[in-house]
Specification:
Elements: H1 7-17, H2 20-35, E1 38-39, H3 47-51, E2 59-63, H4 88-101, H5 112-116, E3 119-123, E4 128-129, H6 141-155, E5 160-164, H7 166-169, E6 181-185, H8 202-212
Parallel strand pairs: 2-3, 2-5, 5-6
Antiparallel strand pairs: 1-4
Length: 220
């Protein structure tokens, strides 16, 4: 696996890339791309990092697994390529955004503009086989992305972490909440959104916190 990653992230994570687990993960991922249909496209595995420079980072949104349907995944959690129908969780994110800050439901489900403003849209697992949800879990990606969260917690200040659902919330143990703001709720999935995702006001609460620290809010 050829790690082409934004220089700030490369500096922060260089030790991680040398570890045995990551070398084994790289071999596994490389073989999978050679023999299976894997999402996202190989050049977009680290897209979340490349679109959101380490020095620019203000917000982390944590997903679990990339979308596993054709044309959906492009390396940003919850986000889909232009022209792709909104998956149900993304539709619910836009509904809450509309209720919270009055933002109209957008034409595209591509969240790249969030990333460019400093929102790291990272899945815990960065690759997946087509039509097989969770197929690349427990291969080493989680160890890598846990290390990413720990590195952000240690090296940055005043980052807002949006943790939606039990899996994302479980990562709060890696975050120093004396330095950062953690906002958690149920997942935006249709199975749970009505039990506390709708009305969580995470988008406005995130921006209020950023402004209180003298940081530019996110234009959601």
């Amino acid at each position: 696996m050829d790690v082409k990653i934004e220089p700030g992230w490369k500096e922060q994570l260089s030790d991680e890339f040398e570890k045995d687990y990551f070398i084994k993960l790289s071999e596994f991922v490389r073989k999978e791309y050679q023999t299976q249909q894997i999402f996202p496209p190989g050049k977009l595995i680290f897209n979340a990092f490349n679109q959101c420079a380490f020095d620019n980072l203000k917000v982390v949104i944590l997903g679990q697994d990339p979308y596993h349907g054709p044309g959906q995944a492009h390396g940003l959690c919850f986000s889909v390529n232009d022209g792709i129908k909104f998956p149900p969780s993304l539709r619910n994110i836009f509904k809450e955004l509309n209720q919270d800050v009055g933002k109209a439901i957008p034409e595209t489900g591509n969240l790249i503009e969030w990333a460019k403003q400093g929102v790291l849209l990272i899945n815990a697992t960065l690759t997946v086989r087509a039509h097989l949800a969770g197929s690349h879990q427990k291969k080493g990606w989680e160890q890598f992305t846990d290390a990413v969260i720990q590195k952000i917690s240690a090296e940055k200040e005043n980052v807002v972490f949006l943790l939606w659902g039990n899996y994302a919330i479980s990562k709060s143990k890696f975050i120093d909440q004396n330095k950062h703001l953690v906002l958690s709720s149920v997942h935006p999935s249709p199975l749970s959104a009505s039990r506390g995702f709708f009305g969580n006001k995470h988008f406005s609460r995130c921006n209020e916190f950023l402004k209180s620290k003298g940081l530019e809010p996110i234009n959601w």
